[in-house]
Amino acid sequence: MTEFTSDVDSHPDSPGQDSDDAVGYYVPGEPIADTKAPGGPISERWNTRKFEARLVNPANRRKLSVIMVGTGLAGASAAATLGEAGYVVKSFCYQDSPRRAHSIAAQGGINAAKNYKEDGDSVHRLFYDTVKGGDYRSRESNVYRLAEVSTNIIDQCVAQGVPFAREYGGLLDNRSFGGVQVSRTFYARGQTGQQLLIGAYQALERQVNAGTVTTYTRHEMLELIVVDGKARGIIARDMVTGEIETHLADVVVLASGGYGNVFYLSTNAMGCNVTATWRAHRKGAYMANPCYTQIHPTCIPVSGTHQSKLTLMSESLRNDGRIWVPKNKADCTKDPRDIPEEDRDYYLERIYPSFGNLVPRDIASRQAKNMCDEGRGVGPEVEGVRRGVYLDFADAIGRLGRDAVEDKYGNLFDMYARITGEDPYQVPMRIYPAVHYVMGGLWVDYDLQSTIPGLFVTGEANFSDHGANRLGASALMQGLADGYFVLPHTIRDYLADGPFEAVDPSHPAVVEARRSVEDRIEHFMTVQGTRSVDSYHRELGNIMWEYCGMERTEDGLKKAIDLIRGLRDDFWRNVKVLGSAATLNQSLEKAGRVADFFELGELMCIDALNRRESCGGHFRGESQTEDGEALRHDDQFAYVAAWEFAMDEGLGAQKPVLHKEDLTYTAIEMKQRSYK
Amino acid sequence: MTATAGTESDTTSDGMKLTLKIWRQANPETPGAMHTFHLEGVSPDMSFLEMLDVLNEQLNAEGEEPIAFDSDCREGICGMCGLMINGQAHGPEVTTTCQLHMRTFSDGDEITIEPWRADAFPVLKDLCVDRSSFDRIIQQGGYVSVNTGSAPEAHSIQVPKDAADRAFDVATCIGCGACVAACPNGSASLFMGAKITHLGELPQGQAERDARVVNMVGQHDHEGFGGCTNIGECTAACPKEIPLDVISQLNKDLRTAMRHGH
Ligand SMILES: Cc1cc2nc3c(=O)[nH]c(=O)nc-3n(C[C@H](O)[C@H](O)[C@H](O)COP(=O)(O)OP(=O)(O)OC[C@H]3O[C@@H](n4cnc5c(N)ncnc54)[C@H](O)[C@@H]3O)c2cc1C
Ligand code: SF4
Ligand code: FES
Questions:
Q1: ipTM of this complex
Q2: Which one of A227, A231, A303, B19 is CB 3.0 to 4.6 Å from B45, fit for a cystine?
Q3: What digits encode the pLDDT tens for the residues B94-112?
Q4: Which of A125, A184, A279, A361 is catalytic?
Q5: Are B224 and B249 in the same domain?
Q6: Are residues A513 and A651 in the same domain?
Q7: Which residue in chain A has the smallest CA separation from B154?
Q8: Dist. CA A657–CA A260, nearest whole Å
Q9: Domain holding A644: CATH number?
Q10: Distance between terminal CA atoms of chain A?
Q11: Could you tell me the residue range of the domain that residue B62 belongs to?
């Protein structure tokens, strides 16, 4: 898809923007629009689209094939549903079973506008909360639809036997989550993602038994096949035998999850990657708002350079815990219990007297980083800095008693104790923010179709529903909404053009895709440099965290881009991958993923550089109010930044093309948030 | 667990010294063998798998191929990890391998690390095994047959809280396979019993109850898992504490199904 490409190089005219920090790093392109969302009243749009989307005759469905990459909530639910409808589905995942997709780790719950509590909830309110939570950077039609189908999700999951929490009367229980005022979150103790995923996985395995779905586990998608402008298949590697396989189909769906691991340390699973979506991006699918990442304030801090991942603890802890650091740097190594009250800085209570410890996620995160950057962090020193702040339950235990605290938070305290070896009933917990979710992803229209016809993208892998910030318990909702209720309707409009002409495996586009995968693997196996893949990944993560994390500045981002480019060149020349490509080889798998993370990281920084505003979870140093709070600029940045991949050969680096999709709101009014 | 403050972990830079005896096997066809490795500077705050990461970095630097082992979430929920540690599935504590921490061990320890051993879990490489037999058991009926879109309103199905809680408790099985690895017979009865009980406790699971148990057990036997002789090693090794009585439930359901003519 290069039809929008413009070769204009200088762009003093970025329309509407006062300034453009990213001049020279990108090329401005034509605006882009979502042409699939119907007009009319917002509550009618989805019905209209469902009606207008063409049907596929059941007899023809067996002649139509779908490749589904990913078996998380978004992928397993869609594969099962399309299998039930009678299409021929191939389902891929890199784990040894579809049931292990990262969705399994979600703890808190799933939102749905059931209004079982009669507390004033409604589809409109869930829609409103989600758009507002996303800081007015999401698309209203998509979000409304999400809220609308949310209720069907609960019905479907209950029918599958998902054991949601129930009240004594036998009806479903709800809780309030993520700072909203209604109780609309359905949950299964602290394992909601697990239970929902097992429901979807079982539906998927039922279709395997029925012969409509074939699963390819321990298979990694390494390239997208585009024939005559349409997505027609993938190149995948059998991760056990090393065989490179060509899989062809009529349509490809990416449900491959988020790319938070570009930061190396995150709460994502070890294998979460951007490869599937990045390969599609390189083939013409636009990447939207890549710099939008969510950072969660209450994670267990890094304990040493050996740290491989971070663990999230429920935010509910901030309801009763008090956050502090020592006033004096000299106290940072002391036993916190020996630091007297007057030497403690309860900084959130001090800076935000009305919200205190309950300020929004991004503020809590940013201030924790500020304290540690000042040298007042606590816990082990890792690479010269102590990155942790205290979350102290001593007052809560004094006020409520140990039993009450144990009742509320017992499982979290146990988890903390298991990981850190410390008893949080006696010494304050230590917490630190960590990357947890990405709102950015491949650009899709209302049909969830990317800019490559025949390539659809669902779940965390797309960008569409959460704007600049995601509300708690809404990612599970989106994954299942996309997979069970949205994609199956919209994809049929595309498939209605079929049956399609079969693609010959010797087609030049197929051969080229295969060769590029083989060449890349061959390269990794022959470099035989001196540094491990992990060491590069960790260094990239540090750059991203430092300069493209919670707080960003023009200078920092420019520096990050230089650093990433230098490191990436070194990686290609000096990485060390041992063993053979013809067996299970985890270093080789990681090398491919890290190679793509380098390119993504560069694009994230360019996107962040362009967006000179603080919005959602992102604080741009240059865009703040007089008292240091986030300042959004709706007049300049109320758009989706959709990036088209392009290389500047002279520079030997990316010079992407920016297509802006203006965001207009008809059913909701834009407001600045305020928390003072 | 101790009550020490986090600041003490500052002093771990010298760390523990360990002798590791690890199974290495190039591929499913080639026979494997135990190899000995020495690792220094192990921090008690490392997870068991982070300790192996450090070993792998060391091997890579020395030009020896890193050891393959599975993990993904490293939070004890995906079920991807699983090692026999000193002969115990997931090691000495009731948790997953990824949630085991090195503070459980002492300086100077010798630790033996092997893959799951079971006929139905062939070794793929080093410490990785093939557990796809579990998926095939589920394919035979570990679900409720309800197509997307055909579900009734959620509140039309009431489930007593006790039943819902019990269903949840056994539905927390992560499919790791420790029960099979721990069982002298290599039986997957605990895994299967957990699914039979999860769906059997709920009204939604009743319609297919007989066929489910018969077909799943048939597949289980076909895959080469052994029979259950009530030894109880499975439940002792299970990181999610799935209770042994799910196997009684499984057997009871199987007898009922047979009586019904299945
Ligand atoms: C610790 C944690 C807690 C969370 N808690 C909540 C919560 O309480 N509520 C909430 O709403 N959200 C929560 N989230 C967010 C939510 O879990 C995720 O956003 C969501 O589950 C993503 O689902 P998905 O189906 O899009 O992708 P995933 O579940 O990530 O699935 C991705 C799939 O793609 C496959 N895949 C990826 N790359 C490739 C490739 N190259 N080749 C082949 N296959 C590939 C994987 O094997 C996997 O099957 C949480 C996230 C984390 C990290
Ligand atoms: S029953 Fe326990 S040990 Fe067996 S697979 Fe499930 S969680 Fe693992
Ligand atoms: S890696 Fe997921 S349970 Fe251990």
A1: 0.95
A2: A303
A3: 999 999 999 999 999 999 9
A4: A361
A5: yes
A6: yes
A7: A155
A8: 23
A9: 1.20.58.100
A10: 46
A11: 16-114
